[in-house]
Amino acid sequence: MAIQPNVLLRTKIGLGGIRLLDYPGLTYPDSVLKAAPGMHPQTGKPYSRPPANTVSSAQAAAMLGTCVSSARMRLHHHKVRFYFVQLGTSHTTLYWSRRKVQELVDAAAKKARSAPRGMVGWRQAVDMLPCTRSTLNRHVKRGRVRIRRLRMATVSGMQTLCFYNVADLKKLRTYLLFCAAQEDEARRRYGRRSTRRGKQ
Question: Does the pTM of the predicted model rise above 0.85?
């Protein structure tokens, strides 16, 4: 279908207020029609000022009691709405919905003054097994050790601390010592590792 000279062509508005030809069969990329997530919906560029009821990444990290990188990962994981803001000629900063950040803070962990009964911090838990902290986290993910997170006042301010069940640690230590003994016995007798040990 050819364009007729006496036909008034239709147009539509793209990012930044530009007019785009609206003709059958003519398509445009999404980057021209829709702003990327976090950008201004009309211009497709970062906001010039923070939207109302938002907090910066540093403020969100202080509210959550973690470092900035951990706070960003957590907020992205929970799909909290974010905005790119460029103040003057400075670098672009991420801002987040204050209400959503506060909801995460309220749901994350309760405040406490001391460790719960029958639970110890990660340093004592690592010494009890013994193992590294990454190995301890793997045991937690597999349901071998119960964990509880509480917000407590520290020298660096309010932070979320992890506490581990002592009874679970003792049972796990007994199991790991048994597996190690089985491995030593199999190596002494057959010169190979025992097949009885489960995945760690």
Answer: no
